[in-house]
Each structure stands twice: as structure tokens, then as C-alpha cells.
Amino acid sequence: MEKIQSIAQTAREQRLEGTHHSGYNSTFPLIGYCFDNSYVCINLLQNNGFDPKLIEGTTERVADELIVEGVNPQNLDSVDELGGLVHYWIEVVFQEITYVVDIASDSFESLGECLVTDSYPEDYIKLPDSESNGDELLSTIRSEEKRCEFCGDHKYTEYGCPKCQNLISEG
User: Fold this and answer.
1) Which of 18, 89, 132, 165 fits a disulfide with 161 by CB distance 3.0 to 4.6 angstroms?
2) How far apart, in whole angstroms, are the C-alpha atoms of residue 106 and residue 104?
3) Exposure string for 96-110, b = 16+ CB within 10 A, e = fewer
4) For residues 132 and 134, what is the distance between their CA atoms, to the nearest angstrom?
5) pTM of the predicted structure, to 2 decimals
């Protein structure tokens, strides 16, 4: 678990290097960028020999609007029923244990924290198609080759990380 925690922390640091999301100058600089966060972490995990899975689900905090309307997101059959109130995180199996990894947790209890746990957080909601939706999205994004693997932002963004800036100057 220590190796996964170290990789997650590295991913978080890389995400914060870009100025496109206010970096360290914001109380919760990575909230609202869950796909970008997961994208960087997935690449780092894969580069270190892991086989991570992108999960497209939600948390009680993200789905609060549905909950207030009387909808229990845990009873839904599909991510589509969330109406865009989604959150992305990673599952990775190591030594037969499944870990949940989220470099900027979007939950009431651990908002903005780097989360690596071997038990599913109660407020994270994984639906029947969460993994397949995550796989499909990741495949699409990778085929477009428009994301910086270092910071997760769109390549060639004016205010990206140092790696993005190098791509701009080379481009």
C-alpha cells in the first residue's frame, strides 16, 4: 500500500504544478478536476507496473442534488442516471487487495485529501457500468492524444505545467 500511496502523492504534486487550476493558491485546488486527477495517477500507476481501472461513479457530496430530490444514487442502474453528477477515481489491485485511489477526494469527510484505502469509502458510489464507462472514456481520451500525462490538462494550454509549456515551445 505504501507504493500506491507514494504514487498517488506524486500524481497530486504533478497536478498542482500547473497553474491552470490555481495550483497551491486555492483551498481545494483539485476539486472539480477529478478526471484530470485520475488520468495522471493512472498513467503513473501503469508506468510502475500496476493495472489500474478508472471508475466513473459519484459520491454523496457530488450527488447531493439528487439526494435532496429524494433519489438514492446507490439504487440507480447506470451512470447515465446521475445526470452528469459524476466523480472519477481509481481502483487498483495489489497483492489480491483492491485499493481505492483518489488524489483529491470529493466527499464530505475527506474533501480534497489524497485518499488511498483498502476499504470502499461509504460515500463513494460505484454503479454497475462505472468500470466500463471509465474504460471507454479513458480509451477515447488516449486515442485523441490531447492530454498531458504529467499534469492531466489539455496539451498546449497557455497556462499548463512545465511539461505543457515545453510542448507549446516545441509546437
Assistant:
1) 18
2) 6
3) eeebbbbbbbbbeeb
4) 5
5) 0.88
